[in-house]
Amino acid sequence: MHQRVAPRKSVTPEKTGSHRLAFAALLAGNVALAFGGWFVRLADTGPVASGFWRIALATPVLLGLSLASGWRPERVGRSVVIAFVLAGFCFAADLGSWHVGILKTTLANATLFGNSATLFFPIYGFLAIRAWPSAHA
Predict the structure, then answer these.
(1) 41 with 102: CB under 8 angstroms?
(2) What share of the chain is helix, strand, coil (3-state, %, to 5)?
(3) Is 7:56 a contact under the CB 8 Å cutoff?
(4) What pLDDT is attached to residue 36?
(5) Residues 76-112 pLDDT 10s
(6) 75 — alpha (psi -120 to 50), left (phi > 0) or beta?
C-alpha cells in the first residue's frame, strides 16, 4: 500500500539581513581557519602546545556565549561523561597530530590530510559494511 507523505513546508525569512550576517560570519570563519596553519608556524611554542592554546583561549568565549544564550548545564550520566572524555581525547590527538604535520610538511599538505578524514572515514565505513547509502530508510 502506498503511504502518503506530508508535503514539506518552507519557511520564508522575514529579514534578509540575517542571511547576510550569517554568510558574512561563514566567510570570516573560513578566512580565520585558513590562517590557522600559518599562525601555528609563527607561534613561539611547540605544535602541540599551540593546539592546546587554540582551544584553551576559545573556551571561555564559547562558554560565555552559551551562558548568555540561556544555556544552563544539566546533570549527565556517567556514560555520557566517559563518551565526552573519549571524544575530547580523540579531538586533542587529532589537533596535536595536525599541528605536528604543519611543521613537518607544507601547510597545504597538512591541511589537506587533516581535513580529508571527513571524506575517507565514511567511505571506509561504507566499504566495511558493504552497503552504500540509499534514499530508503
Answers:
(1) yes
(2) 70, 0, 30
(3) no
(4) 84
(5) 899 999 999 999 999 999 889 889 999 999 988 888 8
(6) beta
Q: What is the dihedral of CA 13, 19, 22, 24, to 10 degrees?
A: -170
Answer for the pair 43, 50: CB distance below 8 angstroms, yes or no: yes
Contact at 8 Å (CB) between 115 and 59? no
Q: Is the pTM of this model over 0.70?
A: no
Give the C-alpha separation, 72 to 60, whole Å.
15
Residue range 8-60, pLDDT digits in tens: 655 555 556 678 899 999 999 888 888 888 888 998 999 999 989 989 999 99
One DSSP character per residue, 6-64 reads PPP-----S-SHHHHHHHHHHHHHHHHHHTHHHHHHH-SS-HHHHHHHHHHHHHHHHHH
